[in-house]
Design goal:
- The protein is mainly α.
- The chain is 70% helix and 2% strand.
- It contains 17 helices and two strands.
- A two-stranded antiparallel sheet has the order 1-2.
- Strand 1 and strand 2 form a beta hairpin.
- The longest helix is centred in the first third of the chain and has 32 residues.
Length: 387
């Protein structure tokens, strides 16, 4: 598929995702009405408001009220918050602009290398959905410094505050990215008509399995080794001497760890194994995606494999989290909204580890295919030919 044909659905999806997030943020005021609290319940309304606030373009009411500080003995002076208001406005402008800017190139690459024709539509839909979640996360990360400064905490525990802001707004992002991905695939399906034959590659099974295993090993390193409680604690305890970038542990953990686990203690081994089924599902999804991706791509390139590995890791994370929600014994007591609070966790780490996994899988695939091509062909008796 040409860039021109692929650009139309990518732009349409980016516009829709940005508009949906804008609309979601504008709905915060509705949740504060008495009728919303009566219908949804106070706890559910507060949880939904917490989800939507990171995408609210209008600044909180606390920004509009002038704070009183001492202006002398017996006097008070009002602080003009216009600069904080402008910083918040700038942060949200950057956030929504970055959603559009990050979504377009990833969706363009996916649609061009993984066009939604017969046999590829589910893979394209899942890939664009995952990339929408990644694009929103990157947009939150890029705009976070302005938002931290707007809250008046620019020089206080900057890196932990940065990690906290990056982790916000992910639940709404998962839902809106799914809607935008569906529309993107529908538009791409229309633009793909008349584009000519879209080839599918035939790749030997052995090299593909080896490449998928090598890429999955990178994800397993984060999921099994780095996410172990003691190792994760060591990563989070990193603290250089002084300065604005002191205590980067929270931020490192956000971008390196796909989960968190510890050895079974005090509970049944069966319950512990049930909790770990989600990790097994994540690794299985990544391995299977890396296994079939070279055959689905119209051309196996490093950018396409890297983006595909990122999307596979995000889909695996979402699948493991949905499985955890379904098997949670306290889910009925908490309610669906409270149960979905962890949905979308680990996307920054999925981006980091997925890029490395895709790179490792591509290099492994190319090396093994080169060796496969250079190996001597067997003769009619089944023995290797000799020069």
């Amino acid at each position: 598929m040409t860039y021109r044909r692929a650009a139309i659905p990518a732009l349409a999806g980016a516009l829709l995702l940005t508009a949906l997030l804008w609309w979601a943020g504008a709905s915060v005021q509705a949740l504060q009405l008495q009728g919303s609290t009566s219908v949804l319940g106070g706890r559910a309304a507060a949880e939904l408001e917490h989800w939507l606030v990171p995408w609210a373009y209008d600044p909180p009411d606390s920004y509009r009220l002038g704070a009183e500080v001492s202006g002398g003995i017996g006097d008070t002076a009002s602080v003009d918050n216009s600069r904080y208001l402008s910083l918040h406005t700038t942060a949200m402008q950057i956030r929504f602009g970055a959603v559009f800017a990050f979504f377009v190139p990833g969706a363009l690459l996916l649609i061009r290398r993984l066009p939604p024709v017969r046999g590829r539509i589910p893979a394209t839909l899942l890939g664009v959905w995952a990339w929408g979640v990644v694009a929103g996360t990157l947009a939150v990360a890029v705009s976070a410094p302005w938002l931290i400064a707007a809250n008046g905490r620019g020089s206080y525990r900057f890196l932990p505050n940065l990690a906290s802001v990056i982790a916000s707004g992910r639940q709404v992002l998962v839902l809106t990215a799914l809607v935008a991905a569906a529309v993107t695939v529908v538009v791409a399906r229309i633009t793909a008509k008349g584009a000519g034959p879209l080839p599918r590659r035939t790749v030997p099974a052995g090299p593909v399995r080896l490449a998928a295993t090598a890429g999955t090993a990178v994800i397993a390193l984060s999921l099994v080794v780095l996410s172990y409680e003691r190792v994760a604690a060591a990563i989070q305890a990193v603290s250089p001497d002084g300065g604005l970038f002191v205590t980067p542990g929270d931020l490192l953990r956000q971008w390196l760890l796909l989960g968190g686990w510890t050895a079974p203690a005090g509970g049944s081994i069966g319950g512990w194994l049930l909790y770990r089924v989600g990790d097994v599902l994540l690794l299985a999804v990544v391995w299977w995606a890396l296994r079939v991706l070279p055959g689905l791509l119209t051309r196996v390139t490093l950018p396409a494999m890297a983006v595909g590995a990122v999307c596979a890791t995000v889909i695996g994370l979402l699948a493991s989290q949905l499985l955890g929600m379904a098997t949670n014994p306290t889910g009925l007591r908490w309610g669906l909204i409270q149960l979905a609070a962890s949905l979308g966790n680990g996307v920054p780490a999925a981006l980091t580890c997925g890029l490395v996994a895709g790179t490792v899988a591509t290099i492994t695939l190319r090396l093994t295919l080169r060796g496969h091509a250079e190996s001597p062909a067997p003769d009619s008796q089944g023995t290797p030919a000799t020069a």
